[in-house]
Structure formats: C-alpha cells, structure tokens
Design goal:
There is one protein chain. With 409 residues, the protein is an alpha+beta fold. The protein is built from nine helices and 19 strands. The strands form five sheets. Strands 11, 14, 15, 16, 17, 18 and 19 form a seven-stranded mixed beta sheet that branches. A hairpin with a 2-residue loop joins strand 9 and strand 10. The chain starts with a strand and ends with a helix.
C-alpha cells in the first residue's frame, strides 16, 4: 500500500524548510523511525524519520530545494496486507493503525491529510485577502504564532518559484565578473526576521558605558572553577544576571506587544537569547529560566549551546521562547551599535569590546575596564526614561558584582 510522508511542522509556526540531504535512495527498504532526510528549518538542521516500514518508491525534491510544510517528501510501499474484500470492519482498523503510527513518530504530527490550523490575521490582512480573493485557510502564516501577514496573503497569489541552484556560479556582469550564491539557510532565515523587525518595531537605541573593573577581578579569581569543569568563565553569564535584575525592576523590557488585542504582555519568566556568529550566519539560542541559574550554570549552558549552534545540531526548542536578547559583537571588535530587536521581543542589548580606558575617578585619572553598551528598544512599549533607568540598573550590577550575590539566584 502506498503511503506518503509529508513535511511536518517540526517547530512552532515553521512554514517551510530547505532539503539538505537524502539519507535513503529510491528502492531502499526502510523501517519505521529510520532517518529519511535532513531538512534545514528555522536555523536548525533536523533529521526526519520514516513513519512507515516498507520500500521507498518515490523521493520528491532535490538538495537545496525549499519545501513547504505539508508537501509530500517520500512515498513508501508498505508491507501491510490489502484489506479483505469481505470484511467491512477492516477500514476502521486501518484508520486506527495510521493514526497510531503518525502519533508515534517524533516529527510526524501532521496527518496524512493537510493539517487544519486556525486562521490568525488582523482585520487589514483579512481585507487584503478578500480583495485578492485569497482563501486564508489555505495560507500558512509566517508571523508570530503562525499569524498571517500581508506578505503571506500577497505571496499566495504569486506562482511558486523554482528552487535556485545551491552551488555558487560565476557569470560576467556589465562591469566585470560576479558570483551568484543561493540565498538560503541561516542567512535567509535571519534576513527574514530582521526585515520583519525593522518593519514592525519603532526602534530607538540608547548607549552608555559600564566600568567592569571589579567584575573582572571576580571573574579572574573564579575562572579556574569553570575550567576544572570543562568550560570558560566569560563576562556573559554575569551580564545575563545583571540584565535579569534590570528586567525584574523594569518589566516592560521583558514583554511583547499583542497588536491584535491591543495588550502589552509582561513576561514573568526570563529567557535570555544569545546571538552568536556561526560560520552559517547569525543564530540566537535561548537560555531558559536564566533567573533560576547560577553564574556557573549559565556558563556551562552557554558553552554547550554555542557548540551545538556551530555544529548545526542545536534543537529548535533552544532557538525559541526568548524574552530579551543579548548580542556580543564586542568579541569581534565593535564598540557601539544599533542592534535590531529580535521581534516580537521589545528590547536587545548590544555588548561592545571591553577595553582599558583612562577615566576620571575622584579627581584622578585612572585606568579602568570599560564595557560599552547599546540598548535598542521598541518605543511603542518603552519610554526613553524607562530604558535609561533599566540601563542604570544593569550598569549598577555590573559595576558592583556584590549586588548579584545579594539579589541574584
């Protein structure tokens, strides 16, 4: 019996993915849960197992092609016996079997028919869909929580584009030789997200400096503790603790804006996103419940997730659920910046390069370690004065690490 395996929604709101590599060939015999194909979704490469045992009779798509959620990936000839002609109860038993197999698959949450999903769209998007004659129930939303955007609706009226070649290819332009590279993977995913943020957020950036001389003494004194456990003690976990202290005091920085319901949602948990520059492009993994972890716990988790991000083995769940993000461009050499908010969050803190600088203290010129900070915030939700006060709290904790011992967990 022919069974078709469709590309399931392996993450929250995933609409498409890029086929990376087939792990089987047409004609191969496969068993249930045997890896079939690697697909790159929202910044992570996931392996999709077979929900069936049988013979592969069709593979759809080539490496490099973009596939939509719900599209057929593989057809398998199963070893199930055909239904007996004289038994009317067989169809009922067969349906139960299909349901069981689908539910048991790690990724096979999508049924054999197109999965039903709720239509989430604001009135103006619905009006645009009506104007274009687009059936919203047939369109996958790319907005927060699968919400349909105006671009989703307008894109539904366009013919599907053929996949661009994956390999770079050279050609001669009017002014000289050029090289064309497929806009795929992490770079494409990151571009979509920053574009969305730029269009939806009223972004303002506020800068200041923190004197982290005292913090450096603590870090240097205790870094052996981390090294004995197999990871480095950087400034980052201390900065996370300082940021969490600021978020607790100024909760509007740890929020999202529900435009449809016209409500600000204050998050009572502290999931801190960390932007990392991987060879494939920018990724943001999330430290969940950062307020409940020690500095050493945070160090260990940062080390582990960074390694997974670089190896592309990070789980999709580690890339979602952030409430506030840090981006550390200082390790590359930058001082200040205007980091783009990781929408739908409302704030992001950029960390510049820590340098020894000559500053005035009590009328004397001294050398101190200075950390430049750049806070971009959504001015629709956060006032400038509130952002400045938040930054003051963060700086206060960075300059006086004892506060983290007293207040932090």
């Amino acid at each position: 019996m022919r069974k078709e395996f469709k590309f399931p929604d392996v993450g929250e709101g995933i609409a498409e993915g890029e086929l990376v590599k087939w792990l089987v060939s047409q004609g191969d015999s496969v068993k249930e849960d045997q890896p079939l194909v690697e697909v790159e979704t929202d910044k992570a490469v996931v392996t999709l197992p077979s929900p069936y045992t049988g013979k592969v009779i069709e593979l759809r798509g080539k490496p490099g092609e973009v596939i939509q959620v719900g599209a057929v990936l593989v057809a398998v000839e199963t070893e199930e016996a055909p239904a007996a002609k004289t038994t009317e109860k067989k169809p009922t038993a067969e349906i139960k079997e299909e349901t069981r197999k689908d539910a048991g698959s790690v990724v096979g949450r999508l049924g054999q028919e197109e999965e039903e999903f709720k239509v989430r769209a604001i009135p103006s998007v619905r009006a645009r869909a009506k104007e274009l004659g687009v059936d919203l129930s047939k369109v996958r939303g790319t907005g927060p929580n699968g919400r349909l955007t105006r671009e989703d609706v307008e894109g539904a009226t366009q013919p599907r584009k053929e996949a661009a070649p994956v390999q770079p290819h050279a050609e001669t332009g009017p002014l000289g030789p050029v090289e064309r590279i497929a806009f795929r993977g992490v770079r494409r995913s990151a571009a979509r997200r920053v574009s969305e943020s730029s269009q939806k957020v009223a972004a303002v950036t506020f800068t200041d400096d923190a004197d982290v001389t005292a913090l450096e003494k603590v870090r240097s004194k205790k870094k052996n503790l981390a090294e004995e456990r197999g990871f480095k003690l950087t400034y980052l976990p201390f900065i996370i603790k300082a940021v969490v202290a600021g978020l607790k005091e100024y909760p509007y920085l740890n929020a999202t804006l529900d435009e449809e319901k016209e409500e600000i949602i204050l998050k009572k948990y502290y999931n801190i996103g960390i932007a990392v520059d991987t060879p494939e492009g920018l990724m943001v993994f999330v430290i969940k419940r950062a307020d409940e972890k020690s500095v050493l716990d945070l160090s260990k988790e940062i080390s582990s997730l960074t390694e997974k991000a670089f190896s592309r083995m990070i789980d999709l769940s580690d890339l979602k659920g952030g409430t506030f993000t840090l981006t550390n461009y200082g390790v590359i050499g930058g001082i200040y910046g205007t980091p783009i908010i990781n929408y739908p969050e409302v704030g992001i803190l950029g960390l510049g390069k820590i340098e020894d600088k000559v500053v005035a203290r009590s009328g004397e010129m001294v050398i101190r370690k200075i950390l430049p900070l750049s806070l971009t915030f959504d001015h629709r939700v956060i006032y400038g004065a509130e952002a400045a006060r938040f930054m003051n709290t963060v700086i206060q904790h960075l300059e006086d690490p004892d506060l983290m011992l007293i207040e932090g967990k």
